[in-house]
Amino acid sequence: MAEAAAKEVAGAAAAAGDMILLISSDGQRFEVAQAVASMSRLVRNMVEDECTDNGVPLPNVPSAVLAKVLEYCSEHAAAAAAAGEEVEELKSFDAAFIEVDNATLFDLILAANYLNVPCLLALACQRAADLIRGKTVEEIRAEFNIANDFTPEEEAEIRKENAWAFQD
């Protein structure tokens, strides 16, 4: 699946000019337009420093996640290049794009942070915040599969010290 996404991104980006080779942590190679890759400040800095001759290794980003990040960057780069692009279309894309399972969401947060893609990082973090908003501690633990490692005594003490946080 990541390979198909990589080919789609590369095909769509080929007409855009200079190409950059990105290499995921599992060795998958993604050839993308410089305009798309440069949405990552990490990659943009490497391009500016002329450090991309042999490709850009991304040891912290697996291919499935990189394909998803590049899908996002490709859509946003195209919107930035298109005159009169409808903001609503991009908002609609973002809303559909970020509807992923929790594991993928957190992988996107880590990748966006590592690659320094601020708009994707903000989108993914907002989605995580939306998943938490209005939930009790127990509901959050269930949502994110977090084990309670406090003893009942420790939990009672924390609830007592932070009573304001546990009010309905």
From TrEMBL:
Entries under SMART domains matching the protein: Skp1 (SM00512)
Cleavable signal peptide: none
Pathway as given in its UniProt record: Protein modification; protein ubiquitination
Coiled-coil annotated spans: none
Domain SKP1 component dimerisation: 120-165
GO terms, biological process: jasmonic acid mediated signaling pathway; protein ubiquitination; SCF-dependent proteasomal ubiquitin-dependent protein catabolic process
Keywords from the UniProt entry: Ubl conjugation pathway
GO cellular component terms attached to this protein's record: cytoplasm; nucleus
Task of the protein: Involved in ubiquitination and subsequent proteasomal degradation of target proteins. Together with CUL1, RBX1 and a F-box protein, it forms a SCF E3 ubiquitin ligase complex. The functional specificity of this complex depends on the type of F-box protein. In the SCF complex, it serves as an adapter that links the F-box protein to CUL1.
Subunit structure: Part of a SCF (SKP1-cullin-F-box) protein ligase complex.
Protein name per its UniProtKB record: SKP1-like protein
